[in-house]
Structures are given as structure tokens and as C-alpha cells.
Amino acid sequence: MTNYQEERVPIPTPWRLIRELRLKRPPWWMILALVIAVIATWIPLAMIYRARHEKSRLPRVHFIHDMDHQPRFGPQDPNPWFHDGRAMRLPIEGTIARGRLVSDQHLVLGYFTSDGTKASSVTEFAKELPESLRQDLESLVSRGENRYMVYCAVCHGILGKGDGVINQRAIELKEAKWVPATNLLTQMIRDRADGQLFQAISDGVRSMPSYGAQISVRDRWAIVAFLRKLQRENPVAEEPKLVSPPIDTPRNDQASPTEVPR
Ligand code: HEC
Predict the structure, then answer these.
(1) How far is the CA of 116 from the centre of ligand 1 (A)?
(2) Phi, then psi, of 190 in degrees rounded to 5
(3) Which of 98, 177, 199, 260 would give a disulfide with 110, using CB separation of 3.0 to 4.6 Å?
């Protein structure tokens, strides 16, 4: 049995090593150089810390450029190359934007014009749905119902009475500037041509926003077809009385307009 206690080798600490190897202390300049070198390694750390915590007017250092900076002209930039000084070129006269071709005024606009597509030259609204959509009226109406519930019912209500949830909420909050959504069952709206209802959806009416961008041409006509169904199946509604006070009149009933501070 070996006695481990006796054989144990002393742990070689640096000082013991120096003593046993008879190493001499390094010269003072070497120690100084080492200390300076160690302190020098802190400089990049300090610079990183500063860069992260200081505000600067200069752009960040950008090591890898990839294609971030390219010699090109942005929208609205000036460009002395062209005689009008603009980098953007006007489209060639007669250019039609994608999806904006009005091949059939009845189908795409819902009205007829005397001068191209200018709204100022409207001669009349289309009386009925376009011929091409009248073939399968049943599926058109059910598509219209689906789209109406998505886009219109929130304001105009499920039956078109102008009592959608948004309308109810606005009245609850006494929103002074709220214009109630039109009751679509009144005689006034029943007398409107199909094309005028279509145009109301496409372009909006006064305080109603336009839905031309969200709803396709066919779906807009489908909604019109569904509106007609709603009107056929429900009794004619009374013309509404003004519910909210007209804008700019004082809310307080006692105050007369002359007492309003200017
Ligand atoms: C954000 C609420 C809102 C939505 C959604 C909305 N409307 Fe309206 N709509 C209104 C308001 C408000 C008016 C009344 C505008 C006015 O008189 O200033 C109106 C008016 C109308 C009119 C009467 C236009 C006229 O000639 O007087 C029709 C028709 C109509 N909307 C159909 C629709 C259809 C169809 C949809 C769905 C595509 C729809 N609305 C979606 C708020 C809305």
C-alpha cells in the first residue's frame, strides 16, 4: 500500500515556479510594456461603448455595403439630364394604368359619358345591370349578399335600414359630426338607377368612403343586385328625420347661435 500522503507533489504556483526555475524578475520596461498593451486592449471596448451610447449626426459606420448605396434617382428627384429637370418621366400620352381600361362604360363605370371617362361629362346612369351579368342572376345575388355583409352591413345594417353597429355606436357616443348611413329601403334610394348605386359604391358619396379599390367590378354589381332584392322583400321605409344636430350649431339647447364665442 502506497502512502499518498508522502508522495504528494506540491502544487506549482507561479511564484514557486519562478523560484525553482530560478527565473529572474523581468526588467521593468517589459512589465511597463505589458501593462500598456493590456490597457490598450480596452480602447476598442471603450469606443464600442461610446458608439452605442452617444448620439451622432453622422450616419452609422457601414462596413458591408451590399447594394445599399446605388447611384440612382429616387421618386421626385431632380435630374439635370432632362430639359424639365425632373428624373421622373411623364407617361406617354394616352397611357392607361393597369386595370383602368374602361372597355365598357356600363360595366366599369355604371354611367355613360360624352367625353371619355371624365366624371364631369356624365350623361346618364345605367338603368339596369350590365347584360353580361344578368345571365346567372341567382348566384350573382348570393355573392352580393356575401359581399354586402362584409363591406356594407357594418354601417347600413343587415337589412339596409341604416342601423349597422357602427351607426348605433356613433349615436351612443353622441358623435356630433356623425352622418348616419342612409336607409337603403326608402323610396328615394329605390328610385335610383342601378348604375347610380354602383357608382356610389365605386366612388363613395359625400361622407361615405369609396369601395372601388376593395371590391371588384363584378362584386359591386352583385351588391347592387342584392340591394334590389332587399328592397323587393322589405316594406318601403320612411324618409329619415335629421337625428344628429347639424354641424356648427351649439349642443346646448339654451344657447342661441349669436352667443357662441368666436
Ligand atoms: C363607413 C360606413 C359606411 C359603409 C361601410 C358603407 N356606407 Fe353607404 N353610406 C354611408 C353614409 C354615411 C352615407 C350617407 C352619405 C351622405 O349622405 O353624406 C351612405 C350612403 C349610401 C348610399 C346612398 C347614396 C346616395 O345616392 O345618396 C348608398 C346607395 C350606399 N351608401 C350604399 C352602400 C353600399 C352598397 C355599401 C357597401 C359596399 C356601403 N354603402 C358601405 C356609410 C357607409
Answers:
(1) 27
(2) -65, -35
(3) 199
d(CA 115, ligand 1 centre) in Å: 27
Q: 356623425: which residue's cell?
A: 178
pLDDT of res. 1: 53
Q: What tens digit of pLDDT does each residue of 52-74 get?
A: 899 889 888 888 988 888 888 99
Query: Which protein residue's CA is at the shortest distance from atom 40 of ligand 1?
Result: 152
Q: Is the CB of 181 under 6 A from ligand 1?
A: yes
pLDDT in tens, 83-137: 999 999 999 998 988 877 888 889 988 998 877 766 677 789 999 999 989 889 9
Could you tell me the distance, in angstroms and rounded to a whole number, from the CA of residue 100 to the centre of ligand 1?
24
Task: Determine the Cα–Cα distance for residues 143 and 140; give it in Å rounded to an integer.
Answer: 5
C-beta 225 within 6 A of ligand 1: no
Contact 219, 202 (CB under 8 A): no
What does the longest C-alpha to C-alpha distance in the chain come to?
Answer: 119
